[in-house]
Structures are given as C-alpha cells and as structure tokens.
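TODO from last week: model DUF1351 domain-containing protein.
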Amino acid sequence: MNELTLNVKQNPGVIELNFDEIEKALDAKLAEYKGAVFTEESKSIAKSEVANLRKLKKDFEDARKGVKKEWMKPYEDFEAKMKNLTEKIDEPICLIDSQLKDFERKRREERREKIKEIYQEIIGDMEEYCDLGRIYDTKWENATTTMRSIRESIATAVESARIAVSTISGMQSDAVEKALEIYKDSQDMAKAVAYINNYEQQKAEIMRREEERRRQEEERRRLAEEKRIRVAEREAIEREARIREQARQEAEARESQAARQEAAVAPLETEKSGGDDVMPFVQPDTRTVFYHVVASDEDIQAIDMALDSIGVYYERRDG
C-alpha cells in the first residue's frame, strides 16, 4: 500500500486574562480578613462575608471551566476524526492478524507433532515414568528453538528418569513399588528415595521393638520356668520326705508286728504240740480263722498295716 502521511498543524491559542490586576486586587481584599475577629454581635456580618467570598470563588471557577470547554472543542473534534481513521485501519489489521494467527497455530501444531515423534523415538520402555506432558516445555514450540535442542532435552529427561528408576529399584526395600509410584507422580527422585529411607527407618524401629518384646517374653518364660522348677523341686523334696516318713512308719509297724509275733510263738508252738491249732486270747465273741494269701511283698505289707489299724490279733506265717 502507498505510504500515508499524516499532516497535523496545531496553532497555539491565546487566552487573555487581566491576571496581575485581579491578583493584586484580590490580595488587597483578602488582606482585610487577616487577624479578623468576629463576636456574637457581629455574627451576621461574618456570615455575609463568607457568602461573598464563596460567590467570588464560584465566579472564578465558572470562568475557568467555561474557558476550558471552549478551549477543548478543537481537540475534541480532532480526537473524533482521528478515532474514525484508526477504526478504519483496525479492519485490515484484524483480517491479516487472523491469518497470521492461523499460520502460527498450524506451525505450532506441526511442531508439536514433530516433538511427539522425537519423544516416541527416544522414550523406549520409560514412558510410564517419563510422560511427555510432564517434561514438555512450551518453548519447544517457538520457531527459534531448534529440533536438535528439543531432541537433546527429551533425551536428557528420559535418561534422568532411567537413572532414577534404576536407583530406586536397586534399593532392595519393600517400599520400592510405592516409591516408584511417587516418582511417577512427582518426577522427583529425591522424594522417592526419602520415602524409602523413612520406611526403612520405621521398619527398623518396629523390628527393634518386636525384638525387645520377644526378648522380654523369653525372659518372662525363663523366669516362669525357673519358678516352676523351684516349685517342682520343693514338691519333690516334700514328696520324698513323705515317702521317708511313710517308710519309717511302716518299719516301725513291722518291728511292732515282729515283736508281737515273737511273743506269740511259744504259746502257739505249745498249742501245736498239744494237737490243737487254736490261737491264744480266745474270747466269747471272737473266732479264729485262717487265710492263705498269695501276694507281693508290697501287698502283704498293706494287709499287715490294715490288720494293725483295726487292732486285730494275727499271726503271719511265711511259707
């Protein structure tokens, strides 16, 4: 298009005002009020003076506003004409700019598609941990950014993710799976590693507490077993004492029985030699009976003790 030249000529206007004369007269008038003191009696005069001063001020303001309004009329007419011209220019600007934006939009779309292709070439098996949306830089879409630099940036990000995943996976912890999820969401290896470290510290503390609990439980069982053994030993000692006491009593019973048998041997033999088999001390309400017993020594001792306990006179003949 042909170059347009805007020729603007501004003629300075002149506003005439007897400023010095008015200022001098005003200063003289206002000097009359300096140090003025009004009383209750002169209150009406004070009100009248204030009204006059306010009217004078209004006259000055009205004059200023009127002059400004007249002064601005040429500018307002100029402004309206200039706005009309600029509005005419806006129409082709919008038309051309719309096409330029379409060109830029298409260029960016093509750039984004190319970026996706580069990403797919590089990503390999790391897509789960290195999503394009997380590493994407909008500067890649600028025309000034080279595809080589974009490729390098993507390759660096993928390699960083590969190292992070390898590092996290190699930590030999039950928390690796969760840590990988954290890295996947945050792309922050330090955060994922910190999670594993915290987990292992907590796990170690839990194991320490569990070991302490087991130690205390084993100590409790050991003390209980020692107590049980001491009780068993006391019971064994008491049982042995009872056995010894019982043996002593049985020995005394046997000795007593032997003494009685010795005392009865002579009369018994006398009775036998006379042809009679009747035991001595026969009373009107007693009888003499004979038992033939086959038993162990322990059982025979029990029989002797039973007969002794009821006070029966008896003779034992070991055959």
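Done. The chain is about 70% helix and 0% strand.
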